[in-house]
């Protein structure tokens, strides 16, 4: 071979060179380890005018590199033309390796199950690292017949190879495949060890496959690996994610030694199961046992503080974070901002936020959501502008927070501007962002825009439908809200408790008793009838549609009541003028220890007014402040003025108006004027 030689490409383990005359000459390589690739690049650098070139995928044309005449790059060394190996020698070597392979399979790694492309060898010698490819053109002619005769799995993987393979599938998110391989591994006679159990348990956790996890737990006990701290911690994590805290506790208590991972897994499980206070107790117990928390532990504990609104304990945890030097950790910082915001201390949240050395979009989201929750929607809109000035790209959660702020403040223009940004960012197809857009437009009174966004959404969930329905309810369009409910049913979307509440409110607003009864049947079929909020909405619908019998039937069947349930029935009696029944119901409330609210007395005094029970009304009005310690409001004074006016006691009604602590409300004066009209009294009326 003479003249310049150019590197053309690689194909199935062969580097192909092309001379100036266009002749192709192969030079084989047999190892893909990082060490070998480094040696190959170093060899290239030893030759004039040749640059080190990385190996690429099959058949990909590489950058040309001029090689001096008479020089070939073979395997990991540069050789002269006379010293270069001939194709015949290479073929003989390949045949020798294959014979060694068939003679003793156990000395070769089986790379076929892990093969991602043709560059990777099918088999590799464990000691010498020699590699073999089934598709190599220099393979002996008898290979195909031998390979066909060799049964699948003749060259088994050892436990180390299986562990690597399982771990790789877990990292790739192929959890079902991981569990299948775990079973296959044992079927092929390879016993699992502590490193095998960890990826298998992680797969069970991700799939929430509790029963499969329990079977693996039994194998762990049989293998004696249960005492291993890493296996134990993974077991706890699996049980926690599968929702079995009892099993998690059992494993936790049996562990001979526990590390920070074990404690953090238990703390995380308690938070996930709504046991924030227990999570905090575990955190303090962990430190008493001398285990130091890490950043993830602090993140989980701060989540616990936020879930139970434990501001003071959150501040103590914050002090520990400073002492441990984790305050600069962005994840810990974000959790601190979130904790303070959810505990209602926006000053502390802003203080932490401003001290953070680096802030990501999660940091901004935590602060924005906190401001919206604490009723500082205008401040959230200002912060959103600052976030964009600092070059932070908003995400879906950011836009959801801002759209909520726009809806609260009725800032339709800001909402439309945010909508434009959402379209530009490509988040308009996100169902959660789309639902927030619908909700924002509905709260701002622009149902046309809400409907336009709703129709453009690629898919709708029950929350999207609820947003449209409640939007029409806010705009006092109960009939359209009902149409949305029936359309939702036609499209096969399963209504939630919130959906039923909205539909019942729509029936009440348009006095649609028959439709309300149909929805009641659907509620019974769905099993939502036991929900106290759905039950209250049913009673309210029947009361407003004038069917007290149906309302009572629902009331008696409810498994539990709250003060709202009683108030609805009391208000129904007041609305229909059944004063005696209302008083009897109030006495029953007191006997059952129901907490009386100011709304309760509004309905009670209204019932007395409609039934002209003056003495009873005066007695209840006095006991409201003296016995129940509930201060009288404008609504209570309005009821009393109406009561006295209907009883022809206009002078006492006028005196009642004068006793209102603040300036008389329009409603109070209207009640007095109405009484003057019923009992003609021009002097007081003027």
From TrEMBL:
**Leader sequence segment:** none
List residue spans for each PPR repeat: 158-192, 228-258, 259-293, 329-359, 360-394, 430-460, 461-495, 531-561, 562-596
Q: Which domain of life is it from?
A: Eukaryota
By its UniProt entry, which PROSITE patterns does this protein fall under?
A: PPR
The family database entries (InterPro entries) matched by this protein are listed as: PPR_At4g14850-like_plant, PPR_rpt, TPR-like_helical_dom_sf
Name the UniProt key words of this record, in alphabetical order: Repeat
Entries under Pfam families matching the protein = PPR_2
From the Swiss-Prot or TrEMBL record, give the protein name. Answer: Pentatricopeptide repeat-containing protein
């Amino acid at each position: 071979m003479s003249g310049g030689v150019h590197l053309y490409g690689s194909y199935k383990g062969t580097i192909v060179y092309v001379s100036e005359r266009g002749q192709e000459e192969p030079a084989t390589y047999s190892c893909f380890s990082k060490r070998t690739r480094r040696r190959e690049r170093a060899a290239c650098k030893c030759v004039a005018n040749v640059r080190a070139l990385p190996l690429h995928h099959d058949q990909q044309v590489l950058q040309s590199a001029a090689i001096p005449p008479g020089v070939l790059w073979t395997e990991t060394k540069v050789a002269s033309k006379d010293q270069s190996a001939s194709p015949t020698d290479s073929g003989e070597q390949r045949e020798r390796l294959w014979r060694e392979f068939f003679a003793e399979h156990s000395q070769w790694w089986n790379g076929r199950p892990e093969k991602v492309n043709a560059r990777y060898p099918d088999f590799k010698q464990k000691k010498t690292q020699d590699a073999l490819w089934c598709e190599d053109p220099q393979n002996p002619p008898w290979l195909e017949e031998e390979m066909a005769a060799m049964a699948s799995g003749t060259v088994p993987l050892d436990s180390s190879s299986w562990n690597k393979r399982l771990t790789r599938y877990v990292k790739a998110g192929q959890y079902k495949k991981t569990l299948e391989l775990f079973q296959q591994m044992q079927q092929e006679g390879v016993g699992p060890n502590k490193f095998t159990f960890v990826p298998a348990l992680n797969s069970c956790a991700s799939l929430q496959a509790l029963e499969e996890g329990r079977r693996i737990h039994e194998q762990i006990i049989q293998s004696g690996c249960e005492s291993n701290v890493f296996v134990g911690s993974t077991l706890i994590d699996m049980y926690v994610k599968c929702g079995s805290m009892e099993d998690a506790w059992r494993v936790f208590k049996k562990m001979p030694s526990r590390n920070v991972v074990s404690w953090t897994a238990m703390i995380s499980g308690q938070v996930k199961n709504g046991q924030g206070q227990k999570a905090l107790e575990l955190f303090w117990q962990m430190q008493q046992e001398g285990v130091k928390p890490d950043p993830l532990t602090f993140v989980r504990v701060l989540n616990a503080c936020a879930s139970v609104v434990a501001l003071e304990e959150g501040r103590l945890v914050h002090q520990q974070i400073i002492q441990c030097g984790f305050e600069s950790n962005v994840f810990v910082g974000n959790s601190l901002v979130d904790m303070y915001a959810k505990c209602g201390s926006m000053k502390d949240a802003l203080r932490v936020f401003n001290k953070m050395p680096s802030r990501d979009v999660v940091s901004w989201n935590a602060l924005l959501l906190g401001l919206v929750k604490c009723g500082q929607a205008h401040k959230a809109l200002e912060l959103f502008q600052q976030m964009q000035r600092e070059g932070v790209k908003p995400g879906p959660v950011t836009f959801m927070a801002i759209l909520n702020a726009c809806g609260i403040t009725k800032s339709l223009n800001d909402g439309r501007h945010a909508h434009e940004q959402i379209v530009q960012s490509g988040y308009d197809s996100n169902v959660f962002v789309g639902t927030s857009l619908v909700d924002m437009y509905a709260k701002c009174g622009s149902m046309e825009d809400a409907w336009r966004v709703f129709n453009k959404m690629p898919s709708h969930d029950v929350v999207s439908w609820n947003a449209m329905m409640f939007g029409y309810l806010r705009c006092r369009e109960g009939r359209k809200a009902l149409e949305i409910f029936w359309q939702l049913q036609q499209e096969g979307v399963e209504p939630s408790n919130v959906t039923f509440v909205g539909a019942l409110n729509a029936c009440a607003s348009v006095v649609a008793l028959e439709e309300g009864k149909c929805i009641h049947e659907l509620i019974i079929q769905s099993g939502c009838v036991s929900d106290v909020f759905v039950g209250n909405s049913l009673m309210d619908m029947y009361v407003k549609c004038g069917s007290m019998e149906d309302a009572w039937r629902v009331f008696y069947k409810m498994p539990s009541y709250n003060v709202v349930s009683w108030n609805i029935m009391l208000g129904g009696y007041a609305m229909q003028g059944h004063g005696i029944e209302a008083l009897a119901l109030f006495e029953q409330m007191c006997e059952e220890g129901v907490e009386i609210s100011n709304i309760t007395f509004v309905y009670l005094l209204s019932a007395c007014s409609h039934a002209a029970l003056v003495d009873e009304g005066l007695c209840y009005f006095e006991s409201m402040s003296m016995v129940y310690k509930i201060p009288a409001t404008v609504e209570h004074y309005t009821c009393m003025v109406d009561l006295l006016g209907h009883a022809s006691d206009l002078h006492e009604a006028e005196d009642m108006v004068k006793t209102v602590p603040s300036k008389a409300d329009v409603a109070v004066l209207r009640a007095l004027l109405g009484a003057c009209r019923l009992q003609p009294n021009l002097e007081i009326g003027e």
